[in-house]
Amino acid sequence: MSANSFGAKSEMTVGGKSYTIYRLSAIEAAFPQAKKLPYSLKILLENLLRTENGLSVRKPDIEALAKWEPKAEPDTEIGFTPARVLLQDFTGVPCVVDLAAMRDAMKQLGGDPAKINPLVPCELVIDHSVQVDEAGTAQSFEHNTKLEYERNQERYTFLRWGMEAFNNFKVVPPETGIVHQVNLEFLARVTFVDGAGTAYPDTLVGTDSHTTMINGLGVLGWGVGGIEAEAAMLGQPVSMLIPQVVGFKLHGKLKEGTTATDLVLTVTQMLRKKGVVGKFVEFYGDGLAELPLADRATIANMAPEYGATCGIFPVDAETIRYLRQTGRPDELVELVEAYYKEQGLFFVAGSPEATYSDALELDLAVVEPSLAGPSRPQDRVALKDVKKSFHDALPKLKVAAKPKAVLPVLPSGTPAADAVEPADAAALTDGSVVIAAITSCTNTSNPSVMVAAGILAKKAAARGLTTKPWVKTSLAPGSKVVTDYLTHSGLLPDLEKLRFYVVGYGCTTCIGNSGPLSDTVSKEIAAGGLVVSAVLSGNRNFEGRVHAEVRANYLASPPLVVAYALAGKVDIDWDNEPVGTGSDGQEVYLKDIWPTHKEVATVIDHAIRKEAYQSIYGQVYDGDANWKALNVPSGDLYAWDAKSTYIANPPYFEGMERKPSPVTEIKGARVLALLGDSITTDHISPAGGIKKDSPAGAYLIANGVSPKDFNQYGARRGHHDVMVRGTFANVRLKNALVPGVEGGVTRHLPEGTTPTSIFDASMQYQKDGVPLIVIGARSTAPVRPATGRRRARGCWASGR
Fold first, then answer.
1. DSSP string, 505-530
2. Which residues, including other chains, have CB under 8 Å from residue 741's CB and lie 6 or more apart?
3. Which cofactors does this protein require (predicted)?
4. What is the CATH number of the domain that holds 103?
5. Shared domain check, 163 and 122
6. pLDDT tens-digit profile of 667-684?
């Protein structure tokens, strides 16, 4: 119940139903400058008005936001209470593990375990666990799904138990789609209505950084850490500083030959250069009318890559069109339109511009075909310059890719002489494309680029072109709706002719679930010290993330992914070199098979059907036969299996008393790792493969797990003993305490000279009673190797 200090509580009627709302006009009457607040801050303002309780949200907090100073450095803290929490399985499983552990602790303290539940709606989508073990065949999907369930049965059983044991918790089963696309197409309400009949803007936090994709629908939300997400699940507000807001004005129209992917890579580069870390970005201008909702979602998805907390678009007529297209109930669509208009939040052309902290502007007509790489999403390269860019980067990439004597991995009894498959890898050189993946939520939510990929495949197949045999091709749609419209338009068979078969519905290559390369390709890469490439339609290409053997990784639109699979190399001059030779003996160039905007629009107009969304999401929580066949335990408390290496009862509540111990100071700390700029979550807590000679690998082997069954770090985040050994285990991590060495290694200070694993060093420090800090970010002074000291802009401290 809000304290309602400003008299904002009111009523509105839509479709014969009455709803309680908190009117922004009430605060605007008291503070006229609030009328010029950016859209995103008005969403926050409503949030404060509705949740004012005199404790976590106070009257002065509301006044501070209403009197927001655009240029001021953020220094005022507020409590944001999201309407719901969104989880994916890699980062969501630990949250559910903690809830289960809390129930055990509650029982030990003499309370009722069943009282431990999420207090706000919490939805988890299982989408990060499917791996591309098999690709390029009609059996790929079936094979990968079978292995997914074999590897993850414990995790899935645990989540099924959680869905039945906890209130306010739902699980979207595997092979439904990517969490952000399912959120966009189905879960998002845009206008939320609680049990008391109060209507308010749909808001959320999620345990995936790309939660921001929903900003394209006008819904405010962003990614947070697991602790923040758990607090939000338990009804606690998210503490934040009132941010600066950067306005991004769009006008004009994309020219022929460009895609939404080219636009988002351009926007990402511009915003990275501007510097928007910790800020909101808000898009506005006449150009919004030229951007379908899916294009907006593509731009919003990449907010983590351009560094912003969120990248939001306002609710407008396009939002309403999309809600109807995706089969939302008429009652909800009517409420969304009426609510945002009533609150003055509905954008129409010519609306007065808000006041922003800073602003950028982009004419859509200047956007050109682009990729980003070879290792960062903000490093946009014009398509015409990719060949030169790759060769410019090659010397640096080559340094670490020294030739290795590698024996082929052979089945038992297979002679070594039979291991080489010349047709598979004889032509491999630096720049060869070995992975071409249409993957990730960024682009597979967008019909324009997915249809463009299908049309390009159709034209290429008609000319007799084929993808190169050493390229591992895959198609991982963001939802089953994608498969529906590709099938309905007749384009899926053309993609399959080029070996782009569906491999699964989930985040695959972009999260590092690329699966293995063929033994022969791996052998050729290692023996030649080759710098080979992946081209993926994803949002992340950080070093070591896509595949450990692939050092050059480029983000590209889905049609370009297909084109590079046809060419088989990343260093191609598309203007002067052909894609290949057709069945008629004539050279075929990219311009000969590139789809026009009109061709794409024609397919979209007849292939995307409201009925498909309604059918696919109608029984979404039921799952397939594999999901239904899981043997799920019952009861309020989870039956922990002491032998499990996936799910374990964490030690956080051991010895817990009703009154917590006081916080102590950190004294005499040592540096565990001295890291540079652009340290990502994947460096800190990798989601990819587990090396058998790593601390985590050694632990699993000691517990009877064969290396072939290691699965991924992300899949084992529900087990603290595995994950503490996987912290900073990224194979490309560079720690200045051990210069010239890559991986999760450090020195034990002060006397240590021999590199040791970060885990082993931390355990020794713990034994010695020495607290630790990790220093990261951009250096402002040179490293002194003797002491490991430097001045840095950021650090993390930890106790023992």
1. SS--GGGT---PPPHHHHHHHHHHT-
2. 735, 755
3. [4Fe-4S] cluster
4. 3.30.499.10
5. yes
6. 999 999 999 887 877 788
